Amino acid sequence: MIEVQSRLTLLLYQCRLLFSWAYLVPAGIVLYVGSRLISRSNSPVLTWINLVLLLEMAFPPISALLLTPVIAEECEYRTLPIIGATATPLVHIFITRFLLVQFYIAAMIATVILLGYQSRPILDMVKLWLIAISPTLFLGLMGAAVAHLTASSLVGYVVSIGYWMLNLAFRELARQPILRYIYLFSASYTHDEKIWQSNKLALLTLAGCMFLLNLLLLQKPEKMLTS
């Protein structure tokens, strides 16, 4: 009974985070910018371009900022032993936060897409969802994996946000034969739909690998404690 109560307490704590400033501020900024961009778009083509830019560029760093410190900051604050006392595996905590973060981001993505909805077919909505979610998952899980490897959320932030900034600075990567598959903003800078679709599928595959890597790293939390 005590174990169940402890796990429920942790779950409620995770849910309450959705209403903290770290979640509400990015949501407010993205939705405000999105509404302004879409309101100034005077044609369906311009609306599509603005939607793609916003979805590809704004959500990946938000995902990285929210997923990177999930477990690493507990290690930094020396609270892992307290969590261990609740008999809740770190894997469960990470998966719970991961699902909550994805729910939060999915709600924002859906809102932005609906703001720009102009009688477009469902297939276009699916494409926009793929454009947004693949780099978002990849960058967030990358930051978490690096943080778990190094037991440092700071290193996770530096690597993930640094990778995002590198992609912003070098747009020509979108056209390189191999690097284009790991480029975050392929749909924004590539007019060939087949190229950016293969890029998004590659990022989703890599995100799946990153997710499994995170679960593997959290199977042995004592390594994080010794780090």
Largest sheet: none
The total count of helices amounts to 11
Number of domains: 1
Low-confidence stretches: none
What is the radius of gyration computed over CA atoms, rounded to a whole number of angstroms? 19 Å
Report, as a whole number of angstroms, the end-to-end distance. 33 Å
The run of helices and strands is HHHHHHHHHHH
Helix content: over 70%
DSSP, total strands: 0
**What amount of the residues lies in strands?**
under 5%
Counting helices, strands and paired strands, the structural category is mainly alpha
Provide an overview of this structure.
It is a single chain. With 227 residues, the chain is an all-alpha fold. It has one domain. Helices cover 78% and strands 0% of the residues. Helix 2 packs antiparallel against helix 3 (44-67), helix 2 packs parallel to helix 6 (90-115) and helix 7 crosses helix 8. The radius of gyration is 19 Å and the shape is globular. The model has no long low-confidence stretch (mean pLDDT 78).
